[in-house]
Amino acid sequence: MAEVAAVPGVLAPYASDPARTRGRRFGEAGAPTRTDYQRDRDRIVHSTAFRRLVYKTQVFVNHEGDLFRTRMTHSLEVAQLARSIARPLGLNEDLVEAIALAHDLGHTPFGHAGQDALNECMASHGGFEHNLQSLRVVDRLEERYPDFDGLNLTFETREGILKHCSLANAQRLEAVEPGGVGRRFIDRTQPSLEAQLCNLADEIAYNAHDIDDGVRSGLLTLEQLEEVPLFAMHKASVQDDHPSLAGRRVLYEAIRRMLSAQVYDVIEATRAALGAGDIASADEARRARPVVGFSEPMRASSSFLKQFLLRNLYRHPQVMDTTSRAREIVRGLFTAYCRQPDEMQVGFAARADRERAVADYIAGMTDRFAVREHERLTGDRLLP
């Protein structure tokens, strides 16, 4: 397969073309100077949920330092990586950016700890999935337009936001929107190549920045990271090229080289998969096996890195203590609001589906607002 030139706006035949979008749930006239995917991106950036991401954290909770990644900085890093891969593949950069910036809009405060706690609280009420919650945010919970709830994004952006979904929830979506974004989970087909790319860019980004944040926090050391072949190889190359370099610059340069290696690997592996599958259209890509991915050696290296971070960072006693407190805060808030719904904002308190309203309200909180609300409602301050 011939390589696609890295020229902005030049789409490959298998890319998502905004002129062929499946459209929006509520019909709107097109914009004179922007494609539909550009409009999606702009609506996401101007949304309330997007602004909240600056005070929602990944691994380290907001009070632990000003320089750790937040959901906002993570989303920006995912968008940058995804666009860097999309252009040489001839994929739609605007759609990639829209999906990347919106993919975490439904995340709770306190990262995965908050999500797990809220899922436990909602176990008898349909559960809680953060990808599905991101879709709820853009389909319903944002209140910015006079004619519809949500942001009224295109099918392709919404499809990319819903990167995971249980079969039960997919069937509920299908009942409301036949042939819509839930259908592929029932048919076991794939999303667009742009959505596949954002999913992988998400993984690449958080692995890299969790190394950086882990070392910055003092919970990981460069010596420990020597256990990770992918990192150790690039660290050694940095030291060979710059023998006098030391400290944080070694870390930054090793991470930069590691990211570049992963990006180039994805580009080459995906080109090979596209050629092997003889994929000539966006619809063919949806019917094929997953196309965007690492080579097998890089996939193994990435998996080893994820397992290392799980053992040494995510399950570190200090992180576990914080996440335990975060779960307690979310559970306490859920109980308090279910008992006293009037303590929520009026729009949530008035809803008949009380438990889902409480989940929506808590999921929209920033870390620090959740801490303050929990203290106000219970008298306990569990985090600084």
From TrEMBL:
One GO MF term attached to the UniProt entry: dGTPase activity
InterPro entries membership: dGTPase, dGTPase-like, dNTPase_2, HD/PDEase_dom, HD_domain, PHydrolase_assoc_dom
A biological process term (GO) from this entry: dGTP catabolic process
Segments forming domain HD: 71-207
Keyword Hydrolase: yes
One family name in Pfam for this protein: HD_assoc
KW Repressor (keyword) present: no
CDD domains found in the cross-reference section: HDc
SMART domains referenced in this protein's UniProt entry, alphabetically: HDc
Keywords: Hydrolase
Record family assignment: Belongs to the dGTPase family. Type 2 subfamily.
PANTHER family assigned: DEOXYGUANOSINETRIPHOSPHATE TRIPHOSPHOHYDROLASE-LIKE PROTEIN, DEOXYNUCLEOSIDE TRIPHOSPHATE TRIPHOSPHOHYDROLASE
Full protein name: Deoxyguanosinetriphosphate triphosphohydrolase-like protein
Organism listed in the record: Ramlibacter algicola
Taxonomic path: Bacteria, Pseudomonadati, Pseudomonadota, Betaproteobacteria, Burkholderiales
